[in-house]
Amino acid sequence: MSMKKRLYNSILLPVLVAILLIAGCEPADFNYSKEVVFTAATGYDNLPGTKTVYTGTDVTVDGKPYELIDWVAGDQIRVMAHNVKTAANNPSAEYAVQSANINQHSGRNSTATVAKVGDGLSWSSTTATSDTFYAIYPSPTKNANASISVGTSNATIGGTIPATQNYTTHTNASAPDMDNAYMWAAKTASAGSTINLEFQPAFTAFQITINNNTGKGLKINSLKLTSSSMAINGSFTGTISASANPSFGGFPTASSTNKEISVTGLPSSAIADGSSASVTLFALPRDLQNMSIKMNVTSDGQTVDKTLDLKKDGSFMTFDKCKKYRINVGAPTVDEPWIYVIEPEPISTITTYGHVAMTAPDFTVKSYKYKASDPTNKVAVPWQLEFSANGTSGWSTTPDARLSLTSTSGVGGATGETVTPSIARTHYDSEKETTGHDSEASAIAELRNRTEVGSSSSPFDLSTHPFYGNINSTISRETANCYVITRAGHYRIPLVYGNAIKNGTTNNHAYQGLKAYDTGNNDNDHYMRTFLRHDDGKIVDPWISGNGITVTSAVVVWQDVDGAANQILLDSDLAINGDYLDFEIKKDNIRPGNIVVAVRNASDVIVWSWHLWVTEKDLSPVSVTDLNSVTHQMLPYNLGWTDAKTANTTHWNDWTFYVHVKQTETGGVTGTAFAIEQIGESTYVAPNVGSNTFYQWGRKDPMLPAASSVRNKTYYSAADFVLTTDNTHIIHETPPATSEKVTVGHSIQNPHIQYHKEVSATGGNGKRIYLGGAGDVFIGNLWDADLIPYTNTSIGTPDPFDNRLPVKTVYDPCPPGFCVPYGFFFGAFTRNQSDWVTTAPAGATLITGEGWRFNNNDHHFFPFTGARGGNGVQGIFDVTSLGYYWTTAPDSRNDSDWRACSKFLYLSETTLRARNDQDKAACYAIRAVHEQ
To answer: What's the rounded mean pLDDT across residues 565-588?
Structure first.
């Protein structure tokens, strides 16, 4: 907006009123029966009255320009005195202009004849020979807001400057309502002398002239004068005397209702090009600051709002009180209109299920504007999300309590801003919920009642303390991929690859196989000579830093808890301390569950991760004697075990609410709101057994447990590690088709992702899973460093390597000192190593819907926790009906199945099998045994 202005900062000169004693009074002999009679003269632009008019003519006095104001017949003033009164003993009287000699300007005066209206002031009311006269213009008779009262030595005047001022338009010149042009005068005079009342202004005036030089007609629709900090309209009072200027006071405190003066009666027609229009506004008699002129104008069919800040040299000017300012403004230009665009992508329904806390798909908001003449210049426009229960009304910027979003507003732009919504599991019909004893609550109480360990300055090192028995004792360092936590405290784990340190020394056998089986090619005969890091480079040292890798950050990947409020461990609780990861599990946060934590490099790539198993259980191992009469030590629970809640049935309700995007600059919104909904479930029956983490064969990282055959266990994860796309699956990733393999390093970088099997691969299922080297060779010794290919082809013929404890590797998922069991280990329970068993062995008891208890021992209980399919379609299956438990042994039938399948314990309610086989992409449970 161009701006031209000329400010006249001169003091507004007073109107002079001569008060003369009419002839008939002799100077030497005062006749107190005579009335006081007035004549008046006008001066300059600060003294408009009820009927006075601006002349439009400037004169120069003392080098300063002044605009003449002329009296008009009918102008009325009120005069008061201390002693001189009317015949009715009233100290005030009304006077009106009878005639005005508007062209007889003498110096700085124009004159008029003034006559009383009703009773006039008379010297006959006093014996004083002099008195002080006070006057206010316009008279309160003409303006009810005007007031004047006389004290013992002075007078008080008052008035009100309105927020809306009316004007009469004459040929593009708007004449103000002169009732608002308050003036005052005070003069001490002797009887018989000429009394000159010098009127002073009691207002501050702004004459705003808009000069149209746009080349087009310009219509002024509205005009406002504003201050961002001060009251500019409202009531005022002032004390005056004959010898001093008044000190005005009593102004209103600034508020939104009196910081603005608006105009009515503006010209109805457009200002022609080359012409101008003027408007004069009256403001409170005070020094005004932070002033702006706001206009709404129309030109060439376009209407816009324009604001002119009254500044000089970049700073707001201060306008002195009781002066008139002329402000010349260049016509506001009306630019080409903006075209506004809002593009939320995608606009689609986001669905979750009643019992699942879930992160919904991201959506992107684009909000910008452009002009038709320059469509490539897209200017950002701020936006705001709004929410409604029905999608048509009741829109609010506050989302439903069930919905949280990474942002609900943005700065806008054409590239788009991403919003991630998270839907909480909070809405169900509590009146229909049936509950029993809350086993989780009991477990939480047990954990929180235990004495904490470690401190911030001396963390409890999980690799130098046993995880069962007397945990306060110490052992030689024993590292692993899984650590057990049984109480709150400050903890530490060394940044070491799996079990690469054993009995306090380097355990290079954990990442290097026996050389006797190396034929010169690391991948020959499905055997890896040296295991790999996250970047598929060879591990050469137990410590991550010893491999030239710098760890810069740590993150909680996921934890199986009910939502953010129940997190056991926060990212803020993690700290890298040299070659250690330190963390704190607070007493108020601890609860049974599973946590995956990871460390990352400067590029935020995960270089290794660990499973933290938080449990109140006593994990003291139990004895198991196998078919060869060898006794082993086995953990009494599956890895990652937590008891089920004992709630029986919960009824979740349907609900839907809606979201749209609103541009804050225009108020425009997206044409279609998109829905976020919960699919209610009439019943949800919790399992009676509990849950455990699942594992893909050969991997070290756990997969999310199941709550039932159709439901994942609830979880919470960082935004980068979403585990589920619906209620039964977890995220699957199809290996890259070009290389037909997922490397070990790629799986380490993504501990939360399950990988598809490739059903069309040559030689059976799983060709693309865990290829360690060239070609389509599948590595078979990931959980047993010394395991070599089978020589037997019959599934009923044992291989000698199935009858010995594995050599635990850096990829083994078990706690320190324990490993995945060998191929024939589960024959200790079925009493058979190869064939299906349909008759329960001695001491075995089926618990319908829960699992098998063997050897009459509660700690030999194997629950039906089901499995996860390996094809990305099947999801969870067989919870409460079947059990699947991995071993380290690949299938022995033929070379093709070696790539695809591995051995596991299979349990149903009618059949047991110690050496079943299935594709390695599936996720099964693990029951750990003590390593050799």
So the answer is: 96
Sequence-distant (≥ 6) Cβ neighbours of residue 110 within 8 angstroms? 41, 42, 43, 68, 70, 71, 100, 101, 102, 103, 104
Q: Where is pLDDT greater, at 923 or 653? A: 923
SS3 581: strand
The whole-number average pLDDT for the span 596-625 is 96
User: Nearest 10 degrees: CA dihedral of 433, 437, 438, 444?
Assistant: 160
Q: Which of 811, 828, 830, 794 is nearest to 888 (CA)?
A: 811
Mean pLDDT across 444-450: 93
Whole-angstrom CA distances from 600 to 38, 484, 532, 812, 918 are 96, 22, 17, 21, 33
- pLDDT of 568 > 80? The answer is yes
**Has residue 111 got a pLDDT over 50?**
yes
Ramachandran sector of residue 568 (left: φ over 0; alpha: ψ -120 to 50; beta: rest): alpha
Spatial distance between the Cα atoms of 754 and 704, rounded to a whole number of angstroms: 10
For residue 438, give both structure tokens. Answer: 């809350």
For residues 477 and 499, the answer to whether their CB atoms sit within 8 Å is: no
pLDDT of residue 62: 62
Cα angle for residues 525, 531, 533 (degrees, 5° grid):
140
| DSSP summary character for residue 259 | S
Angle at 338 between CA 335 and CA 341, to 5 degrees: 175
Residue 355 predicted with pLDDT over 90:
no
What rounded mean pLDDT belongs to the chain? Answer: 78
What are the residues whose beta carbons fall under 8 Å from the beta carbon of 456, sequence distance 6 or more?
490, 584
DSSP 276-287: EEEEEEEE-SS-
Query: Has residue 345 got a pLDDT over 80?
Result: no
Residue type, 582: D
The tens digit of pLDDT for each residue in 246-267 reads 888 889 999 989 999 998 888 7
Q: What is the mean pLDDT of residues 679-699?
A: 71
How far from 602 is each of 553, 580, 599, CA to CA, in Å? 8, 17, 10
Q: CA quadruple 81, 84, 89, 95: dihedral positive or negative?
A: negative
Q: In the structure encoding, which two tokens stand for residue 763, read together?
A: 């030689």
Please report which residue ranges of 764-903 form alpha helices under DSSP H.
827-830, 895-900
Q: How far is the C-alpha of 911 from the C-alpha of 913, rounded, in Å?
A: 7
Retrieve residue 234's tokens: 């409202």
Buried b (16+ CB within 10 A) or exposed e, 402-421: bbbbeebbbebbbebbebeb
Tell me, rounded to whole angstroms, the distance of Cα 296 from its chain centroid.
Answer: 35
- Top-confidence residue, 862 or 116: 862
The beta strands (E) that lie in 14-75 are given as: 16-21, 36-42, 53-61, 64-70
Token pair for 100: 């005005």
Residue that the structure tokens 């992160």 belong to: 359
Average pLDDT over residues 316-334: 82
**How many CB atoms are closer than 10 A to CB 566?**
15
Determine the Cα–Cα distance for residues 3 and 692; give it in Å rounded to an integer.
Answer: 75
Nearest-CA neighbor of 810 among 699, 703, 903, 904?
699
- The three-class DSSP label of residue 869 is coil
At 776, is the pLDDT very low, low, confident or very high (cuts 50, 70, 90)? very low
CB 656 within 8 A of CB 673: no
DSSP characters for 185-237? EEEEEETTS-EEEE-EE-SEEEEEEEE--SSS-BEEEEEEEEESSS--SEEEE
The full DSSP string for 325-349 is EEEEEEPPP-PPPPEEEEEEE----
Token readout for 854 is 């063997």
Encode 478-531 in three state secondary structure: CCCCEEEECCCEEEEEECECCCCEECCEECHHHCECCHHHCCCCCCHHHCCCEC
- Among the listed residues 760, 728, 701, the one whose alpha carbon sits nearest the alpha carbon of residue 873: 728
Please tell me the distance from the alpha carbon of residue 176 to that of residue 187, in angstroms, as a whole number.
29
